[in-house]
Specification:
heterodimer; A: 295 residues; mainly alpha; 0% strand; B: 90 residues; 3 helices; elongated
């Protein structure tokens, strides 16, 4: 299709979409008013099941099937990333990453924040049915919190704290038990993911029936899934690419890729290589040749 | 409250434009992270703390980190492929 044809098709589609959006927005309740159709249905349903945090009631009780879908998406993407990032034959050799320098202030901050972050993560997961937060949010906090050990210390320290096999199993268990609990709803109650446990008293830690259980399972699955996902990326980046980058004398060898600022600086240098620097590119290629010849 | 929401919305629009306007993918990961923070502020302003927490964890931290690591991996492949004739240089 010619350029002009494509633009014409795009303009037709875009104007149709714009017209539909305008029509839809015109019929929406005004912003910031007291009219909330969904709230009027969701809040009484949450109160009926003794769930103080209505969002958790929606996520793990009223629409738990949606959450199962979301969880499966995460599981699928972790499996996909693991398959794609599997070391190729020529990369199968594992080398330990070079240890770089860490600023003392960074190290201290990291070690102080590591337990704090983990406790906050557990807290967010545990209180999902009572206060804002829950398995998804707390799981992400836990998974990123563990990586403070890498930022503050070394990759080796992180590897010791993070047996990937355990997290692999945890992820599968989290996702699997969610479904099992849903099936229990069919056996005991009437429907898949039906809330079948005793509901407890409003606002206490153990309340809302299956909500805290499903919440904790999602927390385990998300935390483990993201740790596994990041592990595959880090393994790729640190234990395979270090050799090719040895000739570069940057002290970000250990810290980059984790801290946004640091990694950005480093990557910016890479981008410049690609556009204008020929000397450094040759350096990389030279390293690559050696690597290939060696294997 | 409306003023705070207006400021947060403007911030989101500005940062969104900044993400689109950033051409190098490496730098885009950083603007994406800041955009995630702006969205977090917006979600807090419209009283959605659950969504704000997710946005803070996933949008501002994990996604930019994975984008960055993914780009590094692709760059390394490009260097490697460049040697033997570069079949997929893209």
């Amino acid at each position: 299709m010619s350029e002009r044809g494509r633009v014409a098709v795009y303009l037709v589609a875009a104007s149709a979409l714009a017209a539909l959006l305008v029509l839809a927005f015109l019929r929406m309740p005004a912003f910031g008013t007291d009219v909330h159709l969904y709230r009027d249905l969701a809040v009484p349903a949450a109160v009926k099941h003794v769930t103080a945090n209505v969002v958790s009631a929606v996520n793990f009780d009223q629409r738990a099937l949606d959450t199962l879908g979301e969880e499966t998406i995460l599981l699928g993407s972790v499996v996909g990333a693991a398959a794609l990032l599997r070391p190729a034959q020529r990369e199968s050799e594992r080398r330990s990453p070079r240890t770089g320098r860490t600023l003392e202030a960074t190290g201290l901050t990291g070690y102080v924040l590591l337990p704090v972050t983990l406790i906050v993560g557990f807290d967010v997961v545990a209180h999902g049915q009572v206060t804002p937060g829950g398995g998804f949010q707390g799981g992400v906090v836990l998974a990123t919190g563990i990586h403070l050990l890498y930022l503050a210390g070394s990759y080796r320290a992180l590897e010791r704290l993070r047996p990937v096999e355990v997290f692999d199993v945890g992820e599968a268990l989290g996702a699997g038990m969610f479904t099992v609990l849903g099936l229990a709803g069919i056996l005991v109650g009437t429907a898949f993911l039906e809330n079948v446990l005793p509901l407890g008293s409003f606002g206490s830690l153990i309340s809302a029936g299956t909500v805290p259980v499903l919440n904790a399972l999602v927390g385990v699955e998300v935390a483990c899934g993201i740790v596994v996902l990041l592990t595959h990326f880090f393994t790729e980046d640190l234990t395979v690419s270090v050799a090719a980058r040895d000739d570069e004398d940057d002290d970000g060898g250990d810290g980059d890729g984790d801290g946004d600022g640091d990694g950005d600086k480093d990557d910016r240098a890479d981008g410049d290589d690609d556009s204008d620097g020929t000397e450094r590119d040759e350096g990389h290629d030279g390293g690559g040749t050696e690597e290939k010849g060696g294997r | 409250m409306t003023a705070i929401i207006a400021v947060a919305l403007t911030l989101v629009a500005a940062m969104g434009a900044a993400v689109v306007g950033t051409h190098a993918p490496e730098r885009q990961a950083v603007t994406l992270s800041v955009y995630g923070l702006a969205l977090t502020v917006l979600f807090v302003a419209v009283q959605a703390p659950d969504v704000a927490l997710s946005q803070l964890g996933v949008g501002a931290a994990v996604v930019p980190l994975m984008v960055m690591l993914g780009i590094r991996r692709i760059r390394r492949d490009q260097r490697g492929e460049g040697l033997d004739g570069g079949k997929d240089g893209e």
